[in-house]
Amino acid sequence: MKRDRAEKIAEELTNHSKWRSHGRSIKIDDLESIGIKVTKIDNNPKLSDIVYRIQTICRLIFETTTAFKIFATKENKIFRHAVPVGETIKIPQMKTPDVVDIKQKCPKCGKVHKIYAKFIDNPQIDIDFQKKGFKPFPENDKITCDCGFEIDLSGIKNQIEIETKQKIINN
Question: Is residue 8 part of a domain?
Fold first, then answer.
């Protein structure tokens, strides 16, 4: 009997023509109407406090970073990040360039961040590019905009390293 009930509930929840989208929440009344017993967290102040704190933290993470999905257990947390596309990266036409420059626009506020990635340990590159207002490619592949938004540059780093066939070095 439990198996039949579970199969009917699963069939109902996977009915795409009824629910349409993953982006739409299913209401308590909808769940109860298909036979699911629901415990309302608002009836338990301690539990509701914990859930609403987690919800607030998740919203802050989604609004201020490139994270779009979080998988969390007691022991592990995995974040999925969208990698924003920057302006075209200008890779010099020489066989093995020493440096490339990147202009990355913040998806939240629009500020353009000027970054350079170098492939050889040459302090003159740092001097020249920093005079032009560029910052070195960050070791953790992330920059934080003045607006607080964290931009993940790992996709851009991969693109550069694949196209140049060289590894970016950090000081």
Answer: yes
